[in-house]
Structure formats: structure tokens, C-alpha cells
Amino acid sequence: MNHSLQDIRQQAAISAKVFIQRDYTNGTVCQFQTKFPSELENRIDKQQFEETVRTLNNLYAEAEKLGGSSYLEGCLACLTAYTIFLCMETHYEKVLKKIAKFIQEQNDKIYAPRGLLLTDPIERGLRVVSFTKTLNSH
Amino acid sequence: MLHLGVAEPMRDCEYSQISTRSSTPMETPFKKRTPKRRKWQAFPGRNKFYCDGRIMMARQTGVFYLTLVLILVTSGLFFSFDCPFLSVKLTPAIPVIGGVLFVFVLGTLFRTSFSDPGVLPRATPDEAADLEKQITNCSSSGYRPPPRTKEVVINGQTVKLKYCFTCKIFRPPRASHCSLCDNCVDRFDHHCPWVGNCVGKRNYRFFYLFILSLSFLTIFIFAFVITHVILRSHQEGFLSALKNSPASVLEVVVCFFSVWSIVGLSGFHTYLISSNQTTNEDIKGSWSSKRGKDNYNPYSYGNIFTNCCAALCGPLPPSLINRRGFVESDTSQPTPPTNGITMYGSTQSQSHMAAATPLMQTETVILTNEGSLPGRTSLGGPCSGALPLGGQPTPPTSNPNLSSDSDMLPLRKDHIDGLHHHHTDGGHHPFLTPEEAPSPPGMLPCGSPVGHSHTVQGFYNPASQDSLHEDSVRGLVKLSSV
């Protein structure tokens, strides 16, 4: 009896989460796949999903962007023996905060009303974007 | 173990009784019986942590202390014996410049050694299960692709992504699993015993600045000690000059031998940075034109300047492992210890696997039945778990992996179906060609290709593979006696 109960629960546990894996076609930059997973078909529409993932991808691209400002920050940090980061945040950290806020917003406005919870990829080591189904029906 | 599965659905009726006889934090919500642990204490890799998780190093730090002693002693001798003479005779700028270089060397050394090199956290049980499902789905669709690899086209080059059995993830491109630290590290360069840590994405620039500044410091000290001896011998004659400053002889000897290796290493890494390659890729010849006419490095930005800027002044990614956060008992834990035991075998060569697997599977069952599985120490494999490692924090008394919650259920199913599950995994391994098996690049020594690497290689390469195998056998014997 134990065994079958755990079987059912495990099925529920696994199918209750949908994972969006990383997309490495542009190299090592942090990007997630925009392919719409079939498990979310009856919960949200494709358009909404793609927009969320695309915005996330753009935000991560902004965090890792090489340009004048990031070089300046790097040089300044080197000259101050990296002690400057005791007072200010790195550019990457600032963008991560933006991402956290964006995800919170998306959860409140779009996903929570549909019984889904979007987790911040940073909590999963930037490996996956995971959608948790909060209602066990469907 | 099994009783927890039964207790859960009954919890709503018997909650008051359970709270008095259970010992896991989940079932006593109003009274924390166990103090909150920080995540570094439950870290599955073979790293040492200091200062409550702020400092992170590899397990073997002996050579790092040697590096530190060499630098401190040589510089100390220079400042005490040579500088007084030189600052009077020539200019006081000499000790000042020397001092700046010295501080810079130490700063970059500490930053390289103590920071997180870019460790990729292990997959949570849900993710691992999801990936397993995807893999079995793929292989059941008619043809049989090489198991556990994915191919990706990056900038026109086909790159193979390998599945890491220990961390249960598909490694991102340029990541590699360090078998010395038992972690997957992003943009893995090599494991450097001299700094006592892996060199990866997050600390490569510090490592480079360290060897660069150390080259300057070594050359600086060498040049000025020679100058000192020459100037003195004009006054007193060569032999009495040497007698009056014996420290100079020691400094010259140390600097002479260091200069070749360190300057060579700096040159090598300058080349690597300008072509945007890692030591790992260079040694394997992944992007060399010898492999094929069309083989090129897809990660290079095209010109040397951009490559250098990107490596040295690019944005510094944050640490993905939250060392100082608290372990929450209701969130999914990373890859559980029991799986780690069988999986560890797969990071070794296939010959070790064949012999060790049956024994490991029985050990898994024994451990889970006892329920006394040390949450932290066994994750590196039975070897590191059983052996009393110096400096390791003591295993927790309440095993967070056994706490009852829905996320833990896939784990518990593994425990119960332990033998069956591990058998299927064990079954996969013989199909892995040596190429497919997760490579142990952690064996790569941190040494210049010039001459230094031979000695370091001799120290590490045969030792590490054999000692790991030996450790695992010893560990298994110890476990069976428990």
C-alpha cells in the first residue's frame, strides 16, 4: 500500500513541475529555450509564455553584456583591488534584482491566477526555469 | 524509513501525538529542535569551508600553504636584507614598488584561492527525474543514440554536451567536472594545487593577475638581489659580499627556479586568454586546426583585444551556490547521498565501475536501512564519506533528506526501490564508451608546459586516479564494518 501511494505521489510530484532548459545555441550566454512545453498547453497560451521567456533572456543578455560600462566597472574594480564591491553591487547583481522583480510581477499578474508558479532560475543555479503547478487538477 | 510514508497521510488525525515522538524539524513546526544549518554545511562537493562559508577551498590545501610560505619568506628576506642597502644606495622607490607588487600578489592569490570558481549546483531531485524521463523517452523512440549526450550547434561548430552522473545535469558548454573537488565548474580551466582551488569562470581573472604579478615580483626581486650583490662586491669583494648577505643567495635560488615556470605559465595563459580558450580545451586540442580544416573556436570574439577584455574586465557573474544561506527543510535538496554513491562510480573509469558496482549497490541498501546516512560526508562517494577527513564538519544528526514532504518522495522511492533503480543505472554504464564517460579533467596539473608540469604531473596524475580507487575500496570496507 505504501508503495503505490508513493508511486502516485511521485507521479504528481514530477508532473507538477515543468522545466524549461537552457538554450546553448548562442554560446555560453544564459538563455532559455522558448519552445512551448506541451504540459502547459491548457494553462497558459503560447504567446504569453514566449514573451515571458524572451524577456528573461533579454535581461540575462543585458547582465552579461560586454561594453563600455562593464569594462569601466571591471577596470575600476581592479584598480581598487575589488574592495569597491564592498560598497556597491556589480552590474550583474543589479540585473538579477531586476529579474527577481520581473518574476514576482509575472507571478502576481499572470501565473498565480492560472495556478502556476514561476521560480527564479538563480535559485536553480541558472539551469532551468521551472513552472510549478499549484493546483493538482488537470 | 518506511514508517514516515505511512505517517504522512495520518498526520492530520494524529498531529498532536506525532509532534512528541518525531525528531524531524518538519513535524514540530512550533519548536525548532535542530538549529538552522547553513547551506555550506550541506554542500555535496569535496570542498572545505572557512569563516562560516565565506571562504571556499579544495580539499587538499598543503601545496597552497607552500606557495604562501615561499612568497612570504622570499619577499620578507628581500625587504629585510636587500632593501635597506638598495634604498640607500639607489632609490627608496625600490621597496615601495616591491611592496605594491607584494600586496597585489597576495591579494590576487587570496581572491583566487578563497572564492567560488563557478561551481554549478547539483540538480534537485525533480529536475533529475525530469531529465531521466526525457532521456528514456528519447531512447525508446526507435534508434538508439549515444546515451546521455546532447549536441548543440554554437556559432557553426557542433559541440557535444555531456551528462554528468554525479551532478545529474547536462553540463553547459565549457563546463567540466573536477574529480578532485567533485563539482561541475563552469568554464573549467584546471584544478590548481598551488592555489588550492579550481580555476573557473569566476576566478580566472584573479588567477591570471596572480601569476602575472608574481612573474613581475619574481623578476623584480631577482634583478635587485643580483644588483645588490654586485654593488656590494664592488665595495668588499664578491665572497665577503655573499657572506654579509646570505639571504640573497637563498632568494636568488628560489627566484631563479620560479622564474622559468611562472613566467612560462603567464605566457601560456596570455595566449589562452587572447584566443579565448581554457587550459582544458587547449590540452585536448578541441579547437585546433589539426582536427579538421573547419575546426575553429566558436567562443572567440575574433580579435585579441576583445578576447582579453572579455576575460579580464567582463562582468563578474555571481556565485550560483548560496553558501551562507540557510538550509530550508521544505525546499528540494540537491542530489541525495544514496544516488551519489552509485553515481560516483561512474565518474571513474569503466574498469573500476565493473568491480565496484555490485558492492556499492549492497552498501546503498545497508545504509538506507540504517537511516544513519550522514547527509554531507557520503555525497562524495563511499570513500570520502567513510574516511575520517580532517577539517570536515561533523555530519548532521537529523538527516534533512529524510524529512517528509512531497519533494522528497521521489528520493524515498529511490531508497525503497534502491536496488532496482540502481540496477537500471548500472545497466547503462557498460554502454558508455570511454569517450562518453565524464572526463576527469581535474587531474590536469597547474603547471607550465615548459618543464614544471612534469613534476606536478608526477605528483598528481597517477596518485589521484589510484588514490581515488583505493579510497573507494577502503571506504567500502569501512562502511561494511559499520
From TrEMBL, chain A:
One cellular-component annotation, GO: palmitoyltransferase complex
Lineage: superkingdom: Eukaryota
Coiled coil: none
Topological type in the membrane: Lipid-anchor
Predominant location category: Golgi
Protein family: Belongs to the ERF4 family.
Compartment annotation: Golgi apparatus membrane
InterPro entries: Golgin_A_7/ERF4 (IPR019383), Ras_palmitoyltransferase (IPR051371)
Alphabetical UniProt keywords: Golgi apparatus, Lipoprotein, Membrane, Palmitate
A GO biological-process term: protein targeting to membrane
Transmembrane regions: none
Lineage: Eukaryota, Metazoa, Chordata, Craniata, Vertebrata
Job description of the protein: May be involved in protein transport from Golgi to cell surface. The ZDHHC9-GOLGA7 complex is a palmitoyltransferase specific for HRAS and NRAS.
Domain Golgin subfamily A member 7/ERF4: 18-129
Protein name (record): Golgin subfamily A member 7
Organism (species): Esox lucius
